[in-house]
């Protein structure tokens, strides 16, 4: 008897996450590997395929047992991106039906369980995505808008402001943390490091700047002026993206969910939620994500295969620790 299973995949700029479940919703295995973004990692295809194969092995399933694969990939936003996205999932022996979408879409399904709402992602990447009451998917990029709130952008802004001399006496504690992070003695040392592009290629430099971001959000929470300015400017760009999409919702109250290390930091979460409460057009209700993005991908696989998403299915999926969002 064939051991039928489905696969949910969430690919991000940092990690690829794969979950295998049976058609009753029982999670059989979960595996992670490196980046799924071919523009950020030349081994994106290998990372994706490794995670899929390792998850199937752990689940005691073969490629022939897979009846559906739902994949959220960061390189897919429109039909023109489909050939590249498909190529990342080409594994000899995997012949099941597939649904490919942006990684934010599987995150939205996980957060809202197919219900309307706006999801704001700000961590390794940054995107605002909405699903309207009519089922229309909208991104802030749909309107040519981008909110530079990914972790690395906060750090770049802070470092550039320090090097440009846009600092105050009250910033000294934060500046010392930045200097320690980059292992330099003073601002002049940081300036020399910057001139040499931090001795890294762009991908590694972006990764290191991303790792620095918690210094920025913590300093903002501690009322350090420079860090607050960087964060506040970023938060305002997210507000614009949210309001752009919010105008396409029919209801006056729109549910909203935050996902990612930056937006879940205490300073970002508190400030953005407060700003949205002052809305003159829509009322935004902040909710916690119901499931992780990879669990959302499993739900999509089951639904596309024709399995109704019942309370029993939902209950089975939530039993796995990787189905939950860690706040």
Model description:
Residues 7-300 form the ATPase BadF/BadG/BcrA/BcrD type domain. The protein is an alpha/beta fold and 327 residues long. It folds into 2 domains: 5-113 and 291-323, 2-Layer Sandwich (Nucleotidyltransferase, domain 5), CATH 3.30.420.40; 114-289, ATPase, nucleotide binding domain (Nucleotidyltransferase, domain 5, 2-Layer Sandwich), CATH 3.30.420. It is 43% helix and 18% strand. It contains 11 helices and 10 strands. The strands form 2 sheets. The chain has a 5-stranded mixed beta sheet. A 5-stranded mixed beta sheet has the order 8-7-6-9-10, with helices on both faces. Helix 4 (151-163) crosses helix 7 and helix 8 (225-246) packs across helix 9 (266-277). The longest helix has 22 residues, at 225-246. The mean pLDDT is 93.
Task: Briefly say what this structure is.
With about 325 residues, this protein is α/β, with parallel strands linked by helices.
First-residue to last-residue Cα separation: 41 Å
CATH superfamily of the largest domain: ATPase, nucleotide binding domain
The average pLDDT value, as a whole number, equals 93
Fraction of helical residues: 40-55%
Backbone CA Rg: 21 Å
Would you list the SSEs in sequence order as H and E? Answer: EEEHEHEHEEEHHHHHEHEHH
- In one word, what is the shape? globular
Q: Which structural class do you get from the secondary structure elements?
A: alpha/beta
Number of domains: 2
Using the coordinates shown, work out and report the CATH topology of the largest domain.
Nucleotidyltransferase, domain 5
Biggest pleated sheet: 5 strands, mixed
The number of distinct β-strands equals: 10
The CATH first-level class of the largest domain comes to Alpha Beta
What is the spatial order of strands in the main beta sheet?
Answer: 3-2-1-4-5
The number of helical elements comes to 11
Low-pLDDT ranges = none
β-strand percent reads 15-25%
The assigned CATH architecture of the largest domain is 2-Layer Sandwich
GO molecular function, one term: N-acetylglucosamine kinase activity
Domain ATPase BadF/BadG/BcrA/BcrD type: 7-300
InterPro entries: ATPase_BadF, ATPase_NBD, NAGK-like
Protein name: ATPase BadF/BadG/BcrA/BcrD type domain-containing protein
């Amino acid at each position: 008897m064939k051991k039928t299973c489905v696969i949910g995949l969430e690919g991000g700029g940092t990690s690829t996450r794969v979950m295998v479940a049976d058609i009753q919703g029982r999670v059989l295995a979960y595996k992670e590997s490196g980046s799924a973004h071919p523009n950020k990692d030349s081994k994106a295809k290998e990372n994706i395929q490794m995670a899929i194969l390792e998850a199937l092995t752990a689940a005691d399933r073969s490629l022939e047992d897979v009846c559906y694969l739902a994949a959220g990939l960061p390189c897919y936003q429109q039909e023109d991106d489909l050939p590249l996205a498909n190529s990342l999932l080409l594994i000899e022996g995997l012949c099941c039906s597939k649904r490919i979408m942006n990684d934010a879409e599987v995150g939205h399904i996980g957060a809202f369980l197919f219900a309307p709402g706006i999801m704001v992602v700000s961590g390794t990447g940054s995107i605002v995505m909405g699903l309207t009451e009519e089922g229309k998917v909208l991104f802030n990029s749909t309107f040519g808008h981008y909110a530079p709130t990914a972790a690395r952008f906060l750090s770049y802004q802070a470092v550039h402001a320090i090097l440009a001399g846009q600092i105050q006496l009250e910033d000294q504690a934060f500046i010392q943390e930045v200097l320690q992070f980059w292992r330099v003695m003073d601002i002049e040392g940081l300036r020399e490091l910057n001139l040499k592009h931090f001795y890294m290629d762009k991908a590694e430099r972006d990764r290191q700047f991303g790792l620095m971001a918690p210094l920025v959000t913590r300093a903002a929470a501690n009322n350090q002026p420079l860090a607050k300015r960087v964060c506040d400017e970023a938060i305002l760009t997210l507000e614009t993206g949210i309001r752009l999409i919010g105008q396409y919702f029919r209801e006056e109250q729109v549910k909203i969910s935050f996902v990612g290390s930056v937006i879940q930091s205490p300073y970002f979460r508190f400030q953005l939620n407060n700003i949205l409460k002052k809305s003159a057009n829509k009322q935004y209700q902040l909710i916690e994500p119901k499931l992780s993005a990879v669990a959302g991908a499993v739900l999509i696989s089951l639904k596309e295969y024709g399995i109704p998403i019942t309370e029993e299915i939902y209950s089975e999926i939530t039993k796995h620790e990787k189905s939950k969002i860690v706040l």
